[in-house]
Specification:
Layout: H1 5-28, H2 30-43, H3 52-59, H4 64-80, H5 84-108, E1 112-116, E2 119-123, H6 130-145, H7 151-171, H8 177-204, H9 214-228, H10 230-250, H11 253-259, H12 262-287
Antiparallel strand pairs: 1-2
Helix pairs in contact: 1-2, 1-8, 2-12, 3-7, 4-5, 4-6, 5-6, 5-8, 6-7, 6-8, 6-12, 7-8, 7-12, 8-12
Length: 290
């Protein structure tokens, strides 16, 4: 990971600008505000009494304890790979991204009053979502620490984890969709900045790795990457299909309700697309240096 810090910095700038655009759309553009509220209302139908404990369980996967456990595991992986700088930077990335989110909320947000089914909800400082920042920063750090052979799998599992957390937050009414998108982009910005710093430092001070004869194997490794994506992609798609079928079995009216709400469809697609795009972009950026 000794080359291309400029590419990583460019991606970080793009994510920062994306976060700014999401914030502007959510707070200053009437259409964006209506889209946010409509999507929140449609997502809320999923959080029925029978499903709410499970949805709460998904959201809790980005609480403090899971953050500490997963972060510790990622540091251990980096240490096992003998990437000492990486092991030190992963906690720094997680701390910076999530600290920024908590500090930015009061300054970037103002009172948003949302009326759902005659009940008013107030979102005074919910942008960007802290849980979404946690989930995406962990997902991207998992991509960072994974070896070249496991990186596509880490990207698939990490994006699925972050997307699931984001969906659960909106379904429970804890956050608006724009909050989730903002949290994803903040996490990506800091992870890419940290990865660029890592690339620069490792370029100045090359470190030994567990890989042997890396250069001759690059072509073979690059050719095998698309094939290695097949199994995790099938697993992810199967999980999504089974999860959707389970949801419909518990609440058959959910499909009709969501299908009749274009705003919900746009929000769902936007959260999923951004989650996949961020992990895939980091995977491709790192692949060039494997």
């Amino acid at each position: 990971m000794s080359r291309r810090p400029l590419t990583l910095l460019t991606l970080a700038l793009a994510c920062a600008l994306g976060a700014l655009l999401v914030w502007l759309a959510a707070f200053s553009v009437p259409f964006g505000q209506r889209l946010d509220v409509s999507a929140l209302a449609a997502f809320g139908v999923v959080a029925q009494p029978r499903l709410e404990p499970s949805i709460h369980g998904v959201a809790s996967l980005a609480n403090l304890l899971p953050l500490i456990i997963i972060a510790s595991a990622l540091v251990c992986v980096a240490l096992l790979r003998r990437r000492w700088l990486m092991a030190a930077l992963v906690p720094a990335i997680l701390l910076a991204a999530n600290s920024f989110t908590q500090l930015a909320k009061p300054g970037l947000a103002h009172r948003r009053i949302v009326e759902l089914s005659g009940v008013e909800g107030v979102y005074p400082a919910s942008w960007p979502s802290g849980h979404s920042t946690v989930a995406m920063s962990l997902a991207l750090c998992a991509v960072l620490v994974a070896g070249p052979g496991l990186r596509p799998l880490a990207a698939v599992l990490g994006s699925a984890y972050a997307i699931a957390v984001g969906y659960s937050l909106v379904a429970l009414g804890f956050h608006l969709p724009s909050d989730v998108l903002g949290g994803f982009l903040v996490a990506a910005t800091f992870t890419l900045l940290g990865t660029a710093a890592l690339a620069r430092l490792e370029g100045l001070h090359p470190q030994p790795t567990s890989s042997v004869n890396v250069a001759p194997s690059r072509r073979a490794g690059a050719a095998s990457v698309p094939r290695s994506l097949v199994v995790p992609a099938v697993v992810a798609l199967t999980t999504l299909v089974l999860g959707g079928l389970a949801l419909l079995a518990h609440h058959p009216g959910a499909a009709g309700h969501l299908g009749g709400k274009p705003a919900a469809a746009l929000a769902a697609i936007g959260i999923a697309a951004l989650g996949v795009a961020l992990t895939a972009s980091l995977t491709l950026a790192l692949r060039s240096d494997d």
